[in-house]
Amino acid sequence: MISLIVGPSSPRTTVAAVFACLADESRREVLDVLVRDGRASASAIAREVQISRQAVAKHLVLLAEAGLVTSERTGREVLYSVQPRPLQDAARWLDRSAAAWDRRLAALKSAAEGRGDDQTASR
What we know:
Elements (H helix, E strand, L loop, with lengths): L10 H12 L2 H13 L1 E3 H8 L3 H13 L3 E6 L2 E6 L1 H38 L2
Antiparallel strand pairs: 1-3, 2-3
């Protein structure tokens, strides 16, 4: 198995791992179950998402490596829950990126509108 986080965990590697995990629809479904239910076992998740327990377990390993879920043994069962911090870090990155693009597009619009006024005035 290939680890999604290489070297020490930093916000950049965590955000990359979050996006890598969220790229897979099955992992998003697993997260949706955990968000809705709070905590669940791999077997309970498998019943909800209609994939095998073994596949769910593999997805949970990748989600845990990205810091998106944690596990807690309760008797014979392992219960998983969502950790919001990595998702919040990814959302903050998206917000900063969107703001930067908004500024760029506003500058482009301003330049285009200014250029259009110059061409009209020279006619």
